[in-house]
Amino acid sequence: MKNDVYYIKHCELLAEEAAAKGDAPVGSIITKGDEIIAESIEASKNKNDITCHAELEAIRLAVKNLKTNDLSDCVIYSTHEPCIMCSYAIRFYKIKKVVYQHAVNYLGGNSSSMPLLISKEVPPHWEEVPVIVHLKTFK
After folding, report:
1. Where does the CMP/dCMP-type deaminase domain lie (predicted)?
2. Which domains does the chain possess?
């Protein structure tokens, strides 16, 4: 059975691909059950579009692949803590669990002064706060 560490290691490979293309080294995947539904790399520089963070790119693909806006049965993995922009999308699409490796202290959706991932002050139709897992180190 695949676990959080397995998926984060997969994200690390995607991050290397992003870095090789000149973007920030960020990789993200979305799973449903034990299946990868979407995977993506940071593409903000290459696409000249600040919204092309790896997490948002993965969410776009997951919504397209699953043909639904309800990702409440999904988990998102990323090499980096989702920023506030990505956190908004994660909450809007009701992703149930967020697993990340590196904290992003200034604009991170969990660790910054604007913790949208864990805030209860969100629209009432959004789901509960997702489970947050910060994998700082692992073997």
Report:
1. 2-114
2. 4-134 (3.40.140.10)
Beta strands in the chain (DSSP E): 27-32, 35-41, 74-80, 97-102, 131-134
| Residues belonging to the active site | 55
Full pLDDT tens readout for the chain, 139 residues: 799 999 999 999 999 999 999 999 999 999 999 999 999 999 999 999 999 999 999 999 999 999 999 999 999 999 999 999 999 999 999 999 999 999 998 999 999 999 999 999 988 888 789 999 999 865 5
Taking the CB of residue 53, how many other CB atoms lie within 10 A of it? Answer: 26
Structure tokens at 90: 């994660």
